[in-house]
Structure formats: structure tokens, C-alpha cells
Design goal:
This protein has 22 helices and 9 strands. The strands form 2 sheets. Strands 2, 3, 4, 7, 8 and 9 form a 6-stranded parallel sheet that branches. Strands 1-6-5 form a 3-stranded parallel sheet. The longest helix is centred in the middle third of the chain and has 49 residues. It is elongated.
Length: 571
């Protein structure tokens, strides 16, 4: 057989793959992030120049500089997947913007104070241990976002100061973009693939609430200084456009149920094409329309509202704006969109993981396979009952009911014999980042060194290299982009979860049971269930056994079996 025939035979024997761009991870993801940053800053600059020409005489370079700082702060919070990183970036960027304009730096201090509290373990507990889960309910989020938006729109309509017709219309594009961002945020959150797959732990939710309050406080302080009012408006517009573009890419990928970074990038490539060929032309046409017909439409709108004022709808209002079309409520609306939108996006999509590593929040659907995961520190001391239950639940042809266990570097050093015995039982061990004090944003060296040492220790103890690493971020550096990049270089994939269950008592609550069952049955497999202990006193044995008993129709497999982005073509 000739060499050509041998190559053809080898090619024909290789199974086809679907839905994957297996080798498309960019060597420098910062380039893609830079494109989004530049596009966000440009759009914010265009909108600012259109909205503020009659109020502030400022060059486009100044607008672009401030908008760039705002979009950069939002993107840092999104890429790091952590509100504390967003707080530090927001405060530092606002500090630069204020310093360059010659103003005081007091207004930038609230986010920096929150970041400072998180820098040590003692003060970090102040902002980590409060139960703010109710703040992330749909009703609360709707109220937080819609009330400032509707107030800003009402103040715009009810304003009774002397203004030109284009002045009223100039604010409309900003409100339109805000409405689109809120609508996309709502649609994404309501129709997300995993209804109970919030990627934020309870500690991260607590951080998000404190950071959101700090951002809103900074924005409100900025409005007190009228000469620098423009700074916070343009800054927040840059943040909002960065959030809007990120929501768009993440929402489209979620609707297609992308599995892993490869499929996410494939869908994002199509999303970028949609932006270039449809959205950008639409934006250009919109601004041309405003420039040509803004005066006419603004005059008609003012005339129409004039007919409504005799009815008492917009006269003598205690909420009326008195000084500027960009009212206090408008600034608070922009601040809340950024403060709420960034943690919501981080809870729904790990953009940083998708860019810097082979990341997964779920596996292939319709496989009847799920991955049950737990940290080694949360395993019960007496595991006899747990091993017996798992052994009884194995299916025909299955060697064992696999439990995926995450271990840290300290676990490998302190319990090597126990970990070897667990591995011999057929269970799969994966890596988990070590806890550190301080902000994850500033832990690049610690992140990369820790995972290298852990990978070496894992190989020494178990005789093979680890395949997976948990993207955990509670007092850890588990979501630092440098850590993701190093994990990819070491041949490890990164796993999040599709269902998070925090056990605070001996057994699962009815709500937790319903969440697990509905998530698994919805996709008929591919779920990654992560069980974590809410306190040191809670025993996870009963909870793990309950999960295994509830999902009798599914098989419990390793992460490598459940989460694959390159399945063979089976129709």
C-alpha cells in the first residue's frame, strides 16, 4: 500500500467530530478583550459626543479616554469573574479619571475601601458572611434595575426647564441603550440553560452586594460636583457598553448550549459576524437618522408633552430634574446597570475561563451521564456508608459509581495514602486551588506557582497527571486568568458546575432536591453537580447518598466522560 493510500485509510478511520473548534483557543486572549474594549469605548464616545455637545465643550479624545477607563474596569470584573476584582478596577479607573481632571479623589474611595477590606482574612469576613441570596431573586433584581430606569425616563419627560428640541431627543439614545442592556440581561437570566447553575457562591454574592453599593455611592458623590459631572456619565457609558457586548456573546452561546470553550468560541465567531454585518450598520444608520431628524422629532415630542401637562401628569412634580438633562437619577441608573449587570453575567457565564482555558459548565446532553463532585475537605470522616451506597448503584457494565473529588496541594501532602485508596476504588481526583489571603487580581505569581507545585505533587502521589481543575473563587485565586492559562499549558481542563448545592444540615432540602432533579432531567444528562458543605459541622454523607438515590435513571461518571466537546458523530 502506498503512503498516500495509508494516509487516506487513517483519515477515514478517524471518527468525525461535531460542534467544536478544537484548536482555536487564541494564543493571546488579550487581543480579543482589547477589541471588545476598543469597540465599547468607541460606542460610548460616539454616544457622549451626540448627547452632550451643547452642554460640555470637550474634545473626543477626552471622551474616549474616560470611556476607555470605564469599559476597562467592567471587562476586568467580567474576565476575572469576581466582584472584588471589579471593585478594585472600578475604583482605580475612576481615581485615574478624577486625578487627570484635577479633581479630588474622595469619590473613588468607596470601591477601593471594599477592595481593601478583602485584602486580609480578618476584614474579609465582614463582607463575606452575610446572607444576601434574596438580593439575587428575580423580583429584587427587576426592582433594582427598573425603578431607576423608569425614574430617569419620567424625569426626562417631566423636565420643565428651558431647552432646545434636540436636547430632549439627545438623551433618548442613552436611554435606548440602557433599555436594551436591561432587556438582554432579563432575557438571559430568565432563559438560561441551567436554572440553578449560579456560578457565584454565597460568599461571592455577599461581595457583589457590597461592591454594588460602593459603586452606586461613588457615582452619587460624583454628581455633586457639576464641572466633573460629565466624567461619571461617560465613564459609566463605557462600562455599560462593555457589559452589553459581553452579555450578547454570552447570551447567544447559552441559547445554543455550547459545551466547553471550543463550542463557545465557534458560536462567538458567528456572533461577531452578526455584529459586523448587522448591528454596526444599524448603529450608524440610527445616528444618521438622529442627526437628520432629531430637531423635528424633538419638537414634536415636546409639543405632545405640552398637551399632557394641563392634565397634571408632568407639572409640579417633586421628582422633576432641575439643572441638567443628565439628572442624578440618570447617573444612578447607569451605575446600577453596571453594579448589578457584572455579577449577573459572572453568575451565568465564565467568560474568563472560556478565553484562557478549556472550561466547562456542563457536558453533552442526552447521554444519561452526570458528574457528582465534592471537595476532599467536605468528605465525611467515616466514608464506609458512602462507598457502600455508591457500589450498590453502579449500572451494568460500569466498574463503579464514580465520585469526582477535588484535592488541594495541602491535601496531597497531608493525606497521600487516603487519596491513593480512593483512587484505587475507581473514583477520580482533580485539582482545586489553594486558599490565599488578599485579592485574586493581585495573585498572579501565587496562582501559577501553586498550580505547578500541586500538579507535580499529584503526579508523584498518584502516578499520573491531573486532568481537571476546579474554578473555585472563595478566598482563593481559582479564577485568575493566569491560573487558567497555566492549567491549559499543564494539560488540565477547568470545570465549573451546572448545579451548586450548599449543604447546611444533614439532608437536602426539598428545594435542593427539585433543583437537582429538574436540571438533570431538563438536559437528560451532562449535568455537573457540585456538593459543598455550608459549615464544618454538616455531614455530607446523607446528602451524597440522597443525590445518588434520586437520579437512579442516570449513571455517575468521571468529568472526562461527562464533559467532552468532541463527541463522535452519532445521529
Amino acid at each position: 500500500m502506498s503512503a498516500t493510500e495509508e494516509e487516506a485509510a487513517a483519515t477515514s478511520s478517524t471518527p468525525r467530530e461535531r460542534g467544536t473548534l478544537k484548536h482555536t483557543l487564541p494564543r493571546r486572549p488579550i487581543f480579543l478583550i482589547g477589541l471588545v474594549w476598543a469597540a465599547s469605548a468607541t460606542l460610548a464616545t460616539m454616544l457622549s459626543l451626540h448627547s452632550l455637545p451643547a452642554v460640555y465643550d470637550t474634545s473626543w479624545q477626552s471622551f474616549f479616554g474616560v470611556a476607555s477607563l470605564g469599559s476597562a474596569s467592567a471587562l476586568l470584573g467580567i474576565v476575572f469573574g469576581d466582584s472584588l476584582s471589579h471593585s478594585l478596577a472600578f475604583g482605580a479607573a475612576l481615581l485615574i479619571a478624577r486625578y487627570c481632571t484635577g479633581a479630588s479623589i474622595v469619590e473613588a474611595s468607596p470601591p477601593l475601601v471594599v477592595a481593601a477590606l478583602a485584602s486580609s482574612r480578618g476584614t474579609r469576613a465582614i463582607i463575606s458572611n452575610l446572607d444576601w441570596d434574596f438580593m439575587f431573586s428575580s423580583t429584587t433584581l427587576h426592582a433594582l434595575c427598573l425603578i431607576p430606569f423608569l425614574t430617569a425616563v419620567y424625569l426626562l419627560i417631566a423636565s420643565d426647564f428651558d431647552m432646545k428640541a434636540p436636547g430632549l431627543f439627545s438623551i433618548t439614545p442613552s436611554c435606548t441603550v440602557a433599555f436594551i442592556t436591561l432587556a438582554l440581561m432579563h432575557y438571559y437570566n430568565k432563559n438560561r440553560a441551567h436554572k440553578h447553575g449560579n456560578l457565584l457562591t454565597s460568599e461571592m454574592k455577599s461581595h457583589a452586594v457590597f461592591v454594588a453599593n460602593a459603586i452606586v455611592l461613588s457615582a452619587s458623590l460624583m454628581t455633586q460636583d457639576e464641572p466633573f459631572f460629565m466624567v461619571i456619565v461617560v465613564f459609566l457609558l463605557g462600562s455599560m457598553f462593555a457589559l452589553l457586548m459581553s452579555l450578547f456573546f454570552a447570551g447567544v452561546a447559552d441559547s445554543w448550549y455550547a459545551v466547553g470553550s471550543g463550542q463557545f468560541q465557534m458560536v462567538s465567531l458567528d456572533s461577531a459576524g452578526m455584529m459586523v454585518y448587522f448591528f454596526w450598520p444599524a448603529i450608524i444608520v440610527y445616528f444618521r437618522f438622529v442627526d437628520k431628524y432629531g430637531d423635528y422629532i424633538g419638537g414634536k415630542v415636546i409639543t405632545a408633552f405640552g398637551y399632557l401637562k394641563p392634565l397634571g401628569l408632568f407639572s409640579d412634580s417633586s421628582l422633576r430634574s432641575g439643572d441638567d438633562i443628565f439628572s442624578f437619577s440618570f447617573v444612578i441608573m447607569l451605575a446600577i446597570i453596571t453594579a448589578v449587570g457584572v455579577p449577573i453575567l459572572n453568575a451565568l457565564c465564565p467568560l474568563g475561563g472560556y478565553l484562557y482555558s478549556r472550561a466547562y459548565t456542563h457536558g453533552q446532553p442526552n447521554t444519561k451521564q452526570v458528574a457528582l463532585c465534592i471537595s476532599y475537605s467536605d468528605l465525611p470522616k467515616d466514608r464506609t456508608t458512602l462507598w457502600a451506597v455508591l457500589a450498590d448503584k453502579k449500572k451494568e457494565g460500569q466498574e463503579t459509581t464514580v465520585l469526582n473529588i477535588f484535592v488541594t496541594l495541602e491535601d496531597l501532602k497531608m493525606h497521600p495514602s487516603e487519596l491513593k485508596l480512593i483512587a484505587l476504588k475507581g473514583h477520580k481526583l482533580s485539582m482545586e486551588p489553594t486558599e490565599f489571603n488578599g485579592l485574586s487580581l493581585l495573585k498572579k505569581t501565587a496562582a501559577t506557582c501553586n498550580i505547578e507545585f500541586a500538579q507535580y505533587e499529584y503526579t508523584e502521589v498518584l502516578g499520573e497527571a491531573p486532568d481537571w481543575m476546579l474554578a473555585k473563587s472563595v478566598d482563593t485565586i481559582g479564577r485568575h486568568p493566569s491560573l487558567f492559562h497555566k492549567a491549559k499549558d499543564l494539560g488540565m481542563k477547568v470545570v465549573y458546575w451546572s448545579t451548586l448545592v450548599k449543604v447546611t444540615s444533614g439532608k437536602l432540602t426539598s428545594q435542593q432536591k427539585d433543583a437537582i432533579i429538574s436540571d438533570c432531567q431538563d438536559k437528560n444528562g451532562g449535568s455537573i453537580i457540585y456538593i459543598t458543605s455550608g459549615n464544618s459541622a454538616s455531614n455530607t454523607t446523607a446528602s451524597l447518598c440522597e443525590v445518588v438515590g434520586m437520579l437512579d435513571e442516570f449513571t455517575f461518571e468521571s468529568l472526562s466522560s461527562v464533559a467532552r466537546d468532541d463527541p463522535t458523530m452519532v445521529l
